[in-house]
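Data deposition worksheet. Section B asks for the primary sequence of the deposited chain exactly as it was used as input, without tags or linkers unless they were present during the calculation. Section C holds the resulting structure in token form. Section D is free text for depositor observations; keep each observation to a single sentence. Incomplete worksheets are returned to the depositor.
Section A, Depositor: J.P.
Section B:
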Amino acid sequence: MEYPITYQKYEEGLARGEFLGLQCKSCGSIMFPPMAVCCECSGSELKPVPLSGKGRVRTFTVVRVAPEGKTPPYIVAMVELDEGPYVIGNLVNLDPDQATMDLMGKEVHLGTRLVGGDMYSIGDVHALTFSFVEQH
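Section C:
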């Protein structure tokens, strides 16, 4: 099986600030991050598509007891991108002690930050982050 977007290509895109997803040619569903088969219909004919990176917070949690190598507290959010996929990442630029239910539905923009590898990982990777969209 040939992958339309390899992990390396996905990571390279993140490094450039590009968010590459896949669209199923059978049902039209969009997936992010890219995967081998469609989440909706299990189709394997997928084509790369650029994503806007914009979406809305659907749920979140404040992590106060973190895994080894991470410094709490921090916010993990699940965001529904405008194109449809749900994505998990860190909500940045907000004091975790200020996180309230008012975050639900807020507009955010996807970003990345480089996270150093540890003994359990494959090395440095780009972790997904979310920042609030400026209101004009």
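Section D:
The beta strands are 19-24, 30-31, 46-51, 54-63, 74-81, 86-91, 107-115, 125-132.
The longest helix spans residues 7-15.
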